[in-house]
Design goal:
119 residues, mainly alpha, 71% helix
Amino acid sequence: MSVLKNPCFFIPVLLFWTNQYLEKVKQVFIPFLFSYLDDLLAMPVVLGITLQVYRWIHPRRENFLFTSIQVGVGLVYFGILFEGLLPIWSATYTRDLWDLLCYLLGAIWFYYFINTPKR
């Protein structure tokens, strides 16, 4: 199944965009969602888009999958960048260890529900 047609991918994308619309356009801030929803959805959205691009260009096409190591590298990259480096470089970002848990849960969601072979 195409990543773009997988409900386990496009529902997180819709939730992400809805949350961004509410925050940026309507100025609606629901504290818990404002703090953690984007972090929870980041890995399924980013890895899902990346997987789809790979499936367009890789010879295995719809049967291309990321290994658990590749997903883990993405998880570590996000953790280091967003919870380690960006808070040092900019006061806009805040280090929050709960965000790491959200990234982990999102990566697990991606690995088991989006990173699936053609059926």
